[in-house]
Amino acid sequence: MRDPVTGFDYPQDWVRKCKSPELLSLAEEGFAVLTSSGTVLRRGYTTGTTAAAACKAAILCLNGVVMSVPIHLPCGLVADVPVSGCSGGRASCKKYAGDYPDDVTAGCEFIAKASPLPEGIVFVPGAGIGHFSRDTPRFRKGEPAITPVPLACILLSIQEAIDQQGLPGVQVELSVTRGLAIAKKTLNFRVGVEGGISILGTTGLVEPWDDHLEDSMRERVSTSRNAILTTGRMGLRYARLLYPDHEVVLVGGKIGEALEAAKGEVILFGLPALILRYVNPHILEGTGYATVEEFSGSPAFLPAMLSSLAAFKKGYPHVRVVLVNREGIIIGESP
User: Residues 188, 206: contact at Cβ < 8 Å?
Assistant: First the structure.
């Protein structure tokens, strides 16, 4: 049995421990995660998936009753996402967090309003959706805080809906109820986003996390003899391409716990942000930058990165750190 989202082959022992055929089927479909104890944890939906569902439902309810909509997720799965309040081109979708109790955006309501146009698609991010207050390496000041992958999912969902309705064009305005208040509980202010939440999601799904999943991660790392630890989906993808003979384990922000469990040589692989802050918690001090991503555009970044990796190697000689950019190109590694 393989997880279609991460590509991980679940050990048969884990499968046997699961006593719920229904939950096991959910894990097999990719909408949940099976742990080493046999417990199944449900994945939730990202803000990007929730936004796409609200937009699609708003268009479909211009002519008809809508209770749920199919959304083609970036990871390749198709999710049937419940919606509500669908009438006359207005629809609501509340974010489902799955078994991730610390998701501060859980339950937040996305509201979309659709109106026909003579041609084309006009997507309008409205109240409760953040915007960038300063230029960053990937976004310009004033742009909405919607990353490219979820934006593509939203636009695809809008296109599918207007094709289904036979419309020549549509305008969709999207807002988030209490978006500004919810954003204050996030780290948006540190990455230069103000006015509301960010719309994110590289797979369309939110990973669950609790003690069961941490135990499973530790077990995978401790039993592997060629483990690559990665912090996110992009690292997961590039690690599989660059190191096809290794077992890639998604550890998120639990880098320390994963390294403690590792036996023998291990590779810590991924984008710089989380990894460099773990390797050198003081890397941004005195730089004038708020994030590693912004610092990466400075001439001072390369020497700071290399010196941090060299110092970390002295304390952790069994760990090889490999950092890549968003195109999968290696930008730094341990000496």
Answer: no
